[in-house]
Design a protein that fits this description.
Elements lengths: L1 H14 L6 E5 L11 E7 L17 E7 L2 E7 L10 H14 L3 E10 L9 E9 L27 H13 L5 E7 L8 H9 L4 E3 L3 H9 L4 E10 L10 H25 L1
Parallel strand pairs: 1-4, 1-5, 5-9, 6-7, 7-8
Antiparallel strand pairs: 2-3, 3-4, 5-8, 6-9
Helix pairs in contact: 1-2, 2-5, 3-6
Length: 270
């Protein structure tokens, strides 16, 4: 694994002079932040050694090196999911690569289903915690001591200072945001009414199919994380409706400019 990571890092370093300090992973329908990046080098995933390929509509599959908010950034336009058939180690491989390229912070976005009865479709939720309901953990197996400890602490999965600053930025821009916990499930099915009820009962405000593995791996490597979720459908009794992937993309795309505003400002101010 470490040899593959270093080989990928060496390849990318041969293709760009950008030394990123911020890593960005963009979720379904949330690729608009890329338009704010002053792109310097763009590399399709299929050209990158050991990189998986994104197979999901709404995930374009490019690694972008550039500038945003006065920072050098590396952005994944399109992420990988466990339900695509990749292992959790493969899903999180790019985060390992970003770390060795030099990132000091990780920003993640996703689209999710809301189980908090106070939420509405289109709600913007800043994540302050998560519950790992994937059938495994990306750190299972021999630990790579060069990257992090065998038993990493997860008491602060999402950085409190970035959360507070994001809330302040949202208030300054009259953007309504909530703060809550996210449960990560495998997918690709959306949840049944009983599953939504279960997820709410164990303490989550939203549920989705990503983010948790990436953040676990980032925290293993001591990278502070910030994550934001757009609630694209509701798993609340009486409000559950038939939802398609296109519905998710449409809601996410509609709210994406507000999320982009928060993340762009946050990156500029950290």
């Amino acid at each position: 694994m470490l040899a593959k990571i270093k080989e990928t890092v060496a390849y990318l370093q041969s293709k760009t002079q950008v030394k990123p300090t911020v890593g960005i992973i963009l979720g379904t329908g949330l690729g608009g932040l890329v338009n704010e990046i002053k792109a310097i080098d763009t590399i399709p995933y299929e050209q990158i050694p050991h990189f998986p390929l994104s197979t999901v509509e709404g995930h374009s599959g490019k690694l972008i090196f550039g500038e945003l908010g006065g920072k050098h950034v590396i952005a994944m336009q399109g992420r990988f999911h466990y339900y695509e058939g990749y292992s959790l180690q493969e899903v999180t491989f790019p985060v390992r690569v970003m770390k060795l390229l030099g990132i000091e912070r990780l920003f993640v976005s996703n689209a999710s289903g809301g189980v908090n009865p106070d939420f509405e479709v289109g709600e913007i939720m800043i994540m302050n915690d998560h519950i790992n309901l994937f059938p495994g953990n990306p750190l299972i197996g021999k630990n790579i001591d060069e990257l992090g400890p065998r038993f990493p602490d997860m008491s602060v999965p999402y950085d409190p200072e970035m959360i507070d600053l994001a809330k302040k930025i949202a208030e300054e821009n009259a953007i309504k945001v909530s703060v809550g916990s996210y449960a990560g499930l495998t997918g690709p099915t959306l949840e049944t009414p009983a599953e939504y009820k279960y997820v709410r009962a164990i303490g989550a405000d939203a549920v989705g199919m990503s983010t948790v593995p990436e953040v676990i791996v980032a925290r293993h490597m001591q990278i502070p994380c910030f994550a934001i979720s757009i609630i694209t459908d509701l798993g609340v009794p009486g409000k559950i409706q038939n939802v398609t992937h296109q519905d998710v993309v449409e809601v996410a795309s509609r709210q994406e400019p507000k999320m982009t505003k928060i993340m762009k400002e946050l990156i500029a101010r950290i």
